[in-house]
C-alpha cells in the first residue's frame, strides 16, 4: 500500500515511488506479476496504478473489512513482459 501526506498529494510522489517499486520487482526480483487493489471510490490510487501501467481486471465484492464493514475493491495487475525463467529451473 501507499499513503502520501495530503500536502504532497497530486504531485506524482506515489506514482514515482510505485514506478521504482515496479522496476525493482521486475528487474531485480524477476517477479512475473504485481497486483494492486483500491476501494471503488479511491480514484487517486486508481490513477496511480493506471499511470504505472496496471490494468483493471475485475472487482471483488466484500474484499476487505475496513472501518467496520466489508468493502468491495477494484483489482489491478501488471504483468512483467520481460520475465525470464530463473537460471537452472524449468
How would you portray this structure in words?
The model has no long low-confidence stretch (mean pLDDT 93). The protein is α+β, with helices and mostly antiparallel strands and 90 residues long. The termini are far apart. The chain contains two helices and three strands, in the order H-E-H-E-E. 28% of the residues lie in helices and 33% in strands. The longest helix is centred in the first third of the chain and has 16 residues, at 13-28. The chain has helices spanning 13-28, 43-51; strands at residues 33-39, 55-66, 69-79.
Order of helices and strands: HEHEE
Helix content: 25-40%
Shape: globular
Estimate what percentage of residues fall within beta strands: 25-35%
Mean pLDDT: 93
- Helix run count: 2
Task: Give the uncertain stretches in residue-range form.
Answer: none
Could you list some keywords that capture this structure?
90 residues; three-stranded antiparallel β-sheet; single chain; alpha+beta; 2 helices
SSE topology:
Layout: H1 13-28, E1 33-39, H2 43-51, E2 55-66, E3 69-79
Brief account:
The protein has 90 residues and is α+β, with helices and mostly antiparallel strands. It has helices spanning 13-28, 43-51; strands at residues 33-39, 55-66, 69-79.
